[in-house]
Amino acid sequence: MDALGSFLDSLDAMLGGSWWFPYVLLGVGFFFTVYLKFPQIRYFKHACRVVTGKYDKKSLEGDTTHFQALSTALSGTVGTGNIGGVALAISIGGPAALFWMWMTAFFGMTTKFVEVTLSHKYRVKTEDGTMAGGPMYYMDRRLNMKWLAVLFAIATVISSFGTGSLPQINNIAQGMEATFGFERMATGAVLSILLALVILGGIKRIAAITSKVVPVMAAVYILGAFAVIFYNIENIAPSFAAVFTNAFSGSAAAGGFLGASFAYAFNRGVNRGLFSNEAGQGSAPIAHASAKADEPVSEGMVSILEPFIDTIIICTLTGLVILSSGVWTEKFETEFERSSMTFIKGNYDESNDADRSELYKYLNGYSDHKVEEYSGTIQVVQGIAVNKDFTVLHSRSIGEDIRFGISDSHQYTGVVEIESGMPVDPSISIQGKSLVHSAELTTKAFTRGYFGDSGKYIVSIGLLLFAFSTAIAWSYYGDRAMTYLLGPRSVMPYRVFYVAGFFWASFADTTLIWKLAAVGIVVMTLPNLFGIMVLRKEMKETVDDYWEKFENGKDQASDSDKIEKSRDFQ
C-alpha cells in the first residue's frame, strides 16, 4: 500500500497537485463567464423556473424530468466532498482553502452550463431505448476525435471508482464505526447489497430514489449545521475574516495547525472544490443527458444550480461549522494513518517559533527547510518509546502522547525499525493526539452545537445518505461510459466490479482512497475542458439561438434535428 500511495502521490503532483491545474480549471470557467456574459447570474432565475417544470412538454424524448436529472447529478456531487472533502481542505490549507472552493464553484456554474448543454445536444438513443450522453459523445460526433472520446470514457470508468464508489463507502464506514461502533466490513457488506439492488434498476430507479433522498438529506444536514453555527455565532465573523484575509497570503499557524502557504491553500481549495461540485469534470452531463428536453440550453441552465447548492450552500455550511467550532486547530486522540504520518529527526515543539518555521517550510514543500526524515530503531516498552530522538508528524501537526502497538493492542514491547520516516513493519500501529481530517473532523465539529454529542449522529446519517446516493449516481456514469466503449452488454460486468470495489473500500486506508480520487478527477477533467474550449463559438451560437426562439415565443425546435442521427451502438 505504501508503494501505491507513493505512486498516486507522484501522479497527483504531476496533475491535480501541479501548479498549473488550478489555473486551467479556474481559467476555463472565468473565460466562459466573461464570454457568455455571466450566465450564472443572468440565467439563475430562469434556471429555477425550468427545474420546476414550467416549460416541460410530456411528449419530449428522455428518461427523466428536469428535477430528477438535477437530483441525480446532485446526488453524484453532494457526497463525501461536502462532509469529508471540506474538512480535508481546511485541515491541509486552513481557512483560505474555503475561499478557493467558492471561486471554483462560482466559475464552475458556467463551466457546468457549457458542458451540459453541449453534451445534451449530441446525446443519442441506445439500442436498449435509453438515452446516453456525456462529453464522449460531443467529442466523437462533433469534434470527430474518437480517440479523445475513448480516453474520456475510460477515465470516467476509473473515476466512477475513484470518485463514486471507493471514497464514498470508505467515509461511510469510518463514520459508522466512530459513531455507532459498527465494523467497517459489516457496513460495507450491507450497503453493497443495497447498492446492487438499486443500480440493477437502471436510470429510472436511480432517478426515482435520488429525487426523494436528496431533498431530505440536504434538509437534515443543513438543520444540524445551523445548530452549530448559531451556538458559536460569535465566531462566525472571525471565521469569515480568516477566509478572506488568508485567501491570498495563505493560512497562518493556529493551535496545532502549523500553517499553509498560499500555493498550498489555493491548490487544495480548488482541487477539493472540483471534487465537491465536479464542474468541468464532465460527469454531470451524463445524468442530464437523460432529461426530457429538446432544447439543450434549458437543461444546461438547470445544471447552473448544482455548484450553487453543492458548494456555495452546503460546503460553506460545513466550512463554517468547522471554523466556528475551532476543532480544526485542536488535537484529538486518534489512530495515526500511515499515509498521513512521518517520523522526523529531533524534538520539535510547536510553541517554538523556530521549530514552527522549519516545519511550515517542510510541510509546504519549500526546499530550504532543515527537517530530516528519521531512520533508525526505536526501543519500545509497553507501548512507550524509550529513546526520544524523534518527532511524529500526523495530519500536518506534531503528534503527542505517542503509543506503539500491534494489532489491537497498544502495549507493544520491542524494537520498531524506521526507514525514511516510516515504520518498516506495516503491522505496527501508532496512536496518540494530533489534528484530524476528513469526516472525523466534521464529526467533531458537529458535537460543538446545541445538539451536543448527539450532533455526531447527524454527520453519520448525512454521510450515509450523501455518500450512498453519490455511489448510486456514479454507477450510472460508469455504465454509460461502458455503453459507449463496449456496448450495453458490458454494463452488467461493470456493475459487478463496481459493487465489489464498493465493499473492498469499506475497510481500506482513507487517505489512499482520497489520493486515488484526486488523480481520477484530473484525468477525466482535462479532455473535457479541452473539448468545450474548442466548441466555444458553437456554444455561444446555441445560447443565442435559444433566447431568440424563447423571446419570440416560437416553438423550441430540437437541436437533435440539426445534427446527424445517432449511430447504432452494438
UniProtKB/TrEMBL annotation:
Any matching Pfam family: Na_Ala_symp
Cross-referenced InterPro entries, in alphabetical order?
Na/Ala_symport
Identify the main location: membrane
TM region(s), chain numbering: 20-38, 147-166, 186-203, 215-233, 239-266, 457-477, 497-530
User: Is the keyword Nuclease assigned to this protein?
Assistant: no
Q: Which UniProt keywords apply?
A: Cell inner membrane, Cell membrane, Membrane, Symport, Transmembrane, Transmembrane helix, Transport
Q: Where in the cell is it found?
A: Cell inner membrane; Cell membrane
Q: How does it sit in the membrane?
A: Multi-pass membrane protein
The entry sums up its family as follows: Belongs to the alanine or glycine:cation symporter (AGCS) (TC 2.A.25) family.
Stored PANTHER family:
AGSS FAMILY TRANSPORTER, SODIUM-ALANINE, TRANSCRIPTIONAL REGULATOR, LRP FAMILY
Query: What's this protein's name?
Result: AGCS family amino acid carrier protein
Which source organism? Pseudoalteromonas obscura
